[in-house]
Design the sequence.
């Protein structure tokens, strides 16, 4: 059993509880234990860096220091948490003055960070540490005939972290979907931003950015968009009706976490994966999974409407 | 004679402080503008904004919505042939404008950012309904009703909690942050 220091992130307790559930469930199937970082705090998201960079790094430093005591690598399921924790870690390791300053602050919570922790994104753990072969072995219900748009988002791939994952032309998300039997459709917007927190301050701009993504998924005839980030999921799925209202479109494309699709392929029940809490029903995906492989080819009509 | 820093120097110095290159090496190629997914909604493109900074147009730059439109997706930074990081520039301008209290009055970003920071200071974790007052009136009465409808739907699906979640060692956490910034005025 491989173990990681798991950083759920604030949204795991709220808007993306289903991501958290499906992560733990699929992890268990693959022999991974996600040990939650004790008393973790918010990563700072983007607003902290908008106000003060040192403060933003301090938030991340506390999580890294707590994780360091376990000797385990940190894994974050959210693109933004991953970006912040990774970025702070790089800065702390490169800048002794910064480390000294933040360690002075960390003393207030009896902590010290020596800089030995590594930070990974959840999907990188699945594709690199677990590997496609091990995943394939656990697939009992291959997602045959399911057309999936692999949506990486932005901060998962950028900035380039020099960790071997190509920031310009990655393929591991599509490869992962193929490993669980699904069809990865060509999705030109796969690395484009979902608008993230602009949904709060700049609603129209964010909705337009989401509309472009949904249009791309619909044109690719995707049955479902797979995401690796709670913010991407929230914007593409929960705000889909707002997009339709704003632009007169009729999109109805389910958006699920890649861990939910993996879980379905491994025979885990939809309920255990948190499926059913969406504002855009994931039923077309469940129907596709429930069908016998022979019936799938006959009824391969795309459920996504082109707007 | 003493001389003071120009606006362009100030901004480039902030860029150096974040470990990135300054703006003086920009060749105005507009790769950043072409890569930006939010460019349609900016009143000046990233390329133009950099040109304006280098030309010392402080007021016009701070009055622009460009840097508050940046969603921080790093598409520009990944592609800049001169290895400038325009996404870091946008962060620099956000911080600069908050420090100087000089930004367009219709920008929700500064108030949202402040509220977010306060929420984390208070709880150690994020709580979405806590930021609502910053933006709920953005869309007028109709917008507010829509926002409430959205909130109710998310609540019904169990995706918004009624009470904020807090970390356990909140006192230590706050003392930690107070070693970096004074908490007076933030709380």
Sequence:
């Amino acid at each position: 059993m491989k173990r990681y220091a798991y950083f759920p992130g604030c949204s795991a307790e709220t808007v993306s509880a289903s991501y958290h559930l499906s992560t733990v469930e699929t992890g268990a199937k693959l022999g991974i234990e996600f040990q939650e970082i004790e008393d973790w705090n918010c990563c700072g998201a983007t607003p902290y860096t908008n106000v003060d960079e040192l403060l933003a790094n301090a938030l991340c430093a506390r999580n890294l220091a707590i994780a360091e005591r376990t000797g385990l690598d940190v894994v974050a399921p959210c693109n933004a948490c991953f970006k912040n924790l990774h970025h702070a870690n790089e800065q702390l390791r490169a800048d002794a003055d910064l480390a000294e300053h933040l360690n002075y602050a960390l003393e207030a919570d009896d902590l010290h960070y020596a800089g030995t922790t590594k930070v990974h994104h959840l999907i990188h753990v699945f594709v690199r540490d677990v590997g496609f072969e091990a995943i394939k072995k656990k697939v009992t219900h291959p997602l045959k005939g399911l057309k999936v748009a692999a949506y990486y988002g932005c901060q998962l791939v950028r900035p380039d972290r020099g960790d071997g994952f190509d920031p310009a032309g990655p393929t591991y998300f599509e490869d992962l979907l193929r490993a669980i039997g699904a069809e990865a459709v060509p999705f030109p917007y796969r690395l484009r931003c979902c608008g993230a927190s602009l949904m709060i301050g700049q609603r129209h701009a964010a909705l337009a950015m989401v509309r472009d993504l949904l249009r791309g998924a619909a044109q690719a005839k995707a049955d479902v968009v797979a995401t690796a980030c709670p913010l991407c999921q929230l914007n593409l799925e929960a705000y889909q009706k707002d997009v339709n209202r704003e632009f007169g479109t009729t999109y109805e494309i389910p958006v699920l976490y890649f861990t939910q699709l993996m879980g379905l392929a491994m025979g885990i029940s939809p309920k255990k994966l948190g499926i059913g809490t969406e504002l855009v029903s994931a039923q077309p995906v469940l129907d596709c999974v429930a069908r016998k492989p022979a019936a799938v080819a006959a009824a391969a009509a795309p459920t996504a409407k082109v707007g | 004679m003493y001389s003071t820093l120009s606006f362009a120097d100030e901004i480039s110095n902030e860029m150096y402080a974040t470990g990135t290159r300054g703006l003086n090496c920009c060749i105005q190629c507009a790769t950043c503008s072409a890569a930006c997914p939010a460019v349609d909604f900016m009143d000046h493109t990233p390329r133009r904004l950099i040109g304006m900074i280098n030309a010392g147009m402080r007021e016009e730059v701070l009055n622009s919505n460009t840097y508050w439109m940046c969603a921080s997706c790093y598409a520009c930074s990944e592609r800049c042939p001169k290895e400038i990081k325009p996404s870091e520039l946008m962060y620099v301008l956000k911080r600069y404008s908050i420090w100087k209290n000089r930004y367009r009055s219709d920008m929700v970003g500064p108030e949202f950012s402040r509220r977010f920071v306060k929420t984390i200071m208070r709880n150690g974790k994020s709580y979405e309904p806590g930021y609502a007052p910053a933006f709920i009136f953005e869309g007028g009465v109709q917008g507010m009703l829509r926002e409430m409808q959205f909130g109710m739907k998310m609540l019904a699906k169990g995706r918004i909690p009624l009470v904020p979640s807090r970390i356990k060692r909140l006192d230590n956490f706050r003392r930690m942050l107070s070693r970096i910034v004074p908490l007076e005025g933030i709380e």
Observations:
- DSSP finds eleven helices and no strands in chain B.
- The first helix of chain B runs from residue 7 to 17.
